[in-house]
Design goal:
Blueprint: E1 2-6, E2 14-15, E3 27-28, E4 30-34, H1 39-45, H2 48-54, E5 70-74, E6 79-84, E7 89-95, E8 110-118, E9 128-135, E10 138-144, H3 160-172, H4 174-177, H5 181-189, H6 200-211, H7 220-233, H8 248-259, H9 263-284, H10 293-302, H11 316-327, H12 341-345, H13 356-372, E11 384-388
Antiparallel strand pairs: 1-6, 2-3, 4-10, 5-6, 5-9, 7-8, 7-11, 9-10
Helix pairs in contact: 7-13, 8-9, 9-10, 9-13, 10-11
């Protein structure tokens, strides 16, 4: 249902504090609430969304349970166009492997979510927005009334399609964005990371283990099966990429050794070569900075950051920390450090650390890096797919 309505007055926002007449009040002109906000979400849905629905001419009352999605574009002349259960969001995603038009996509295949566009609908920069939507079982409500301020015309400065894509990413994969600092410490201490190429079911269990401070290594058999499947079916290591060209033979040998359960050889190849891959990217982008460990990780993580939403499933800032704290971990000589680039290079990594876990993590680091080597707009192994929801 698409309807044009006229409002009694322009929406200005929601009051964010309690007070009496004459008290100074805080009003939010824009915001986002989701199912995890509980009654705060319900209170706001009962505000402007309910008021907008009540103005839609209909033969029978429109009840909340009848609303799957609601997009209202509000103009300064108090008119609005309302799309009730009508708007068709198109999600721009990066997926594992290739696909054909019409193929179904599961959560396991999604590597990252980009912008959300709406079929046949453009959102002008000078309109207010009310958007109620669902992502799986979760509900989201986004509003932006900044362009409707009566004292000045203020055009929207951000890309609303990218912001909405970020909100969908947050709702669909909420567990990844709710990892506490204590849980991150557990991940780093155990040398793990919620790598984007791992299946969703494994990632959920890894996060649960980190939350309870359990040993994530208990999931190693499932993680190994996932990595072997990727190597055999949808290998993220793109041999046609210029970044991999000078490393192809060694990566091929590492894969062969991994599948043969020779993890001493596999890890010995991978850990120096991961830095080599990052150095190749650094040179290819013509950076003049010294390729120190800090600069290498900074360049890789930040080069395409403008093409990622704020809730990127690549978790860029956390991956930067991971590379710094785990892969490039510094150590004191003679302390038998965990396996990492410095400890391997200086011959002080523990012999028993050249094992299945270390070689598996090595491949997962490489897989994650491939996603930072591209802006995600090209088709192929790390390509995009647009799907209507």
């Amino acid at each position: 249902m698409i309807k044009d309505i006229e409002l009694n007055m322009l929406p200005m926002g929601y009051v964010e504090n309690t007070g009496r007449a004459g008290d100074k009040m805080i009003v939010s002109l824009s915001g986002f609430f989701s199912s995890e906000d509980g009654d705060d979400l319900i209170t706001r849905l009962e505000g402007y969304p309910q008021a907008i629905i009540s103005l839609i001419p209909a033969e029978i009352p429109i009840l909340p349970q009848m609303v799957n999605s609601l997009l209202a574009l509000i103009r300064r002349d108090k008119t609005a166009t309302v799309y009730l259960n009508e708007v068709r969001p198109i999600m721009h995603t990066r997926i594992k492997g290739g696909c054909e038009k019409g193929d179904p996509i599961s959560a396991d295949q999604i590597l990252d979510i980009g912008k959300i566009t709406f079929e046949g609908v453009k959102i002008p920069r000078d309109v207010g927005i009310v958007y109620v939507f669902s992502a799986g079982w979760r509900r989201g409500f986004f509003y932006d009334f900044v362009p409707l301020r009566e004292d000045v015309v203020q055009l929207r400065e951000y890309d609303v399609e990218e912001l909405i894509g970020s909100l969908y990413s947050y709702l669909f994969f909420q567990k990844r964005f709710n990892i506490s600092e204590a849980m991150w410490d557990t991940f780093y201490q155990q040398r793990w990371f919620p790598f984007a190429y791992l299946n969703e079911s494994i990632l959920k269990r890894m996060i649960l283990h980190a939350k309870n401070n359990w040993n994530i290594d208990k999931l190693l058999p499932r993680i190994v099966d996932n990595v072997k499947q990727l190597l055999n079916e949808n290998n993220p290591i793109n041999k046609s990429s210029s970044y991999f060209a000078e490393h192809t033979d060694l990566f091929d040998r590492a894969i062969e050794r991994y599948l043969a359960d020779d993890h001493v050889s596999c890890a010995s190849i991978l850990y120096p070569r991961i830095e080599g891959l990052m150095r190749t990217f650094h040179r290819a982008k013509k950076y003049s900075s010294i390729p120190s460990t800090k600069n290498l990780t900074k360049v890789v993580v930040e080069y395409y950051q403008d093409q990622r939403t704020s809730h990127s499933l690549l978790l860029p800032s956390r991956f930067n920390n991971y590379l710094d704290k785990v892969y490039f971990a510094q150590f004191d000589p003679g302390t038998e450090p965990d396996i990492g680039r410095p400890s391997v290079a200086h011959g002080e990594a523990r012999a028993d650390d050249f094992n299945l876990k270390s070689s598996t993590i090595g491949f997962l680091i490489i897989f994650q890096l491939t996603l930072f080597f591209s802006d995600g707009t090209k088709s192929g192994t790390n390509g995009t797919k647009e799907g209507k929801r």
